[in-house]
Amino acid sequence: MLKKLLFTISFVSAIYCCKAQTAEEVYNKYLDYNLARMQGETEKALDLGADLIPNIDKLKPGARNNFYYSIANLYENNDQSVKAIEYYQKVVAAVPDYYVAQRGLGYQYAKQAEALKASGGAAYIAAVRKALPHLEKAQACDPDDDTLKLIKLYYNNINDKTGLATLNERLKKLSKTCVDLLDDKN
């Protein structure tokens, strides 16, 4: 009898502990994550962010995109490029005109390209081609001399004269649809 009682108590406790989190609980964890991030507690924020990810679908889309951007940025600053790219990609897929995430993703791809530069060849060219559209969107929305130099360098390095010749035209077109802030209310 005692074994059955202990089993029942353990079973009920396990169900209670493992219950799905409510949207409000997830949002409160999101607020805790943001507080840790704003206070410069990177490791704590990364831990809280990792805990949030399994239930992130309970956040509103705007808050989710904001979370993805901020955790990508934390991973980038913590030299975790693979994870940074994963979350920048989520933001860019959801809000393609958000040039800040485009810049982050572009520079992460550029970092990969630089690692392949010495070997040259197809892998380097592919990495550069991944970086360019993101860098161009960022440049179109928020012009920066360093980004422009990098874009031009890449076109020269891969010997893409047409891409370089039509750059200004593309930048002008891309500059018409720029998002500079994510709204986490919707």
Automatic annotation (TrEMBL):
TPR repeats: 65-98
InterPro entries in the cross-refs: TPR-like_helical_dom_sf, TPR_rpt
Keywords: TPR repeat
Domain of life (superkingdom): Bacteria
SUPFAM superfamilies for this protein: TPR-like
Official protein name in the record: Uncharacterized protein
Organism from which the protein derives: Mucilaginibacter achroorhodeus
